Amino acid sequence: MDDLAFCDASTLARKIRDKELSALELLDHYVDRMEKYNPDINAIICEQIDRARGRAKAADQELARGKPQGPLHGVPMTVKESYDISGLPSTWGNPELKDNLAASDAVACERLQAAGAIIFGKTNVPLFLADFQSYNDIYGTTNNPHDLERGPGGSSGGSAAALAAGLTGLEMGSDIGGSIRNPAHYCGVFGHKPTWGIAPMRGHALPGVLTPTDISVIGPLARSAEDLALVMGIVAGADALQLPGWTLELPEPEQSSLADFKIAVWADDAIAPVDSSVKERVMQVAQLVESAGGRVDYEARPEFAVADSNAVYSDLLQSAMSARQPEEVFQQYWQRRQELKKDDTSDLARVTRSSTLFYREWHQQNERRTHLRWAWHRFFKDYDLLLTPICATSAFTHDHNPQMSSRQIIVNDAPQPYFTQVFWAGLTGVSYLPSTVVPTGLDNQGLPIGVQIVSAEMRDLTCIEFARLTHAEIGGFVPAPRYAD
After folding, report:
1. Residue of 82, 90, 155, 455 with catalytic role
2. Considering 10, 90, 179, 431, which one is annotated as catalytic?
3. Within this chain, do residues 140 and 76 fall inside the same structural domain, yes or no?
4. Domain-embedded: residue 299
5. Can 179 be counted among the known catalytic residues?
6. Can you give the residue range of the structural domain that contains 329?
7. Per-residue pLDDT tens for 174-225?
8. pLDDT, tens digit, 9 for 90 and up, residues 232-251
9. Domain contains 241
């Protein structure tokens, strides 16, 4: 196996600092792999190789002078297409934006590069970052490295696929409906959705937009939990508007072993049924804690009706996504709303109303969300973490039916609506909670399965540490076998 390609970023940085290899050699290694393997996967969809090589040479010169830039000195990485990188297209998969070249770098990318990272390319997304698959009319379809007939997830699908195939050292994604977490699950890598608002979104937006989108966050995908914590330490923190008066100090984990954790387990739900193969992995991680002597509760739930939480999430999610749509699309929704009957409670009617909320309606849903946040706050006084699935199944075969409402997934041999599975992302996303996905290995189809780890707001590092401890026990990251040579 190509051990170098599948190292985590922390290890790669150490190898460069110890001069086991140069930053330029490592970059060229990933570029060679990209040229060899990316045509099959289509994960990396635009590049800046010459600029990256210039930065790698400069990194090697700086190290020779004893002046490394930071903890990611010399590490090659890619970022999701939706991040601005000066001179590269930021299209969000929309053909109307195919000529939109960024004039500057996103704040997160500035911080990563200041820490020494070398960004050499960008990875694929779905149209407007709004699908569980990653394909669009500009860049085409990204395939799952574990099975090319299946998708890698979305919207950070190219990010997770590139990591699973050993095409990059590190990745940055974003998440509003599981867009970091479901690709991490489908491709068998680590992903972290931060507490909302702690990592600056500036430069991860449609042209001209500066206001952060509700629910949406940016965060890392990686091949280790250590990398997730490392990136959070680099990227999270106040943007220029809040400086110097706002300082982020995420609390360190209070636990040092699995035995120290008090966890709750929510492994399935009638609203969004989970395949037995996925549920088994959630239970497996819970049983690690039990076996270590920790406390596990399989019945504990926050004090709210789960259907209410799901309804609030659906309304706020559709409202946020609608704000990204072109004016003519919004007007179509608005016209359709005018024609709805008051007693129409169909899925289409609910989406139509959610996509055209008046501010008063949005404010009412936001108030309901605030009650949910306080319910979670009370819940996490008794528990350190909650374990859940993030998706109902392992990766599914490509399905590009333009009528998304007609798509289905198969759960325990029975069809379920395609978007039912967004429930597990929304359960925590609507309430701004940090959530980490840890890979747990492959199922009987040779496909990865991840487990979602959730904690209280601002307890991001506790989620990540639990993922690290879990992975140390089960070794869940498995390189995509066909690209391991």
Report:
1. 155
2. 179
3. yes
4. no
5. yes
6. 306-367
7. 999 999 999 999 999 999 999 999 999 999 999 999 999 999 999 999 999 9
8. 999 999 999 999 899 999 99
9. yes
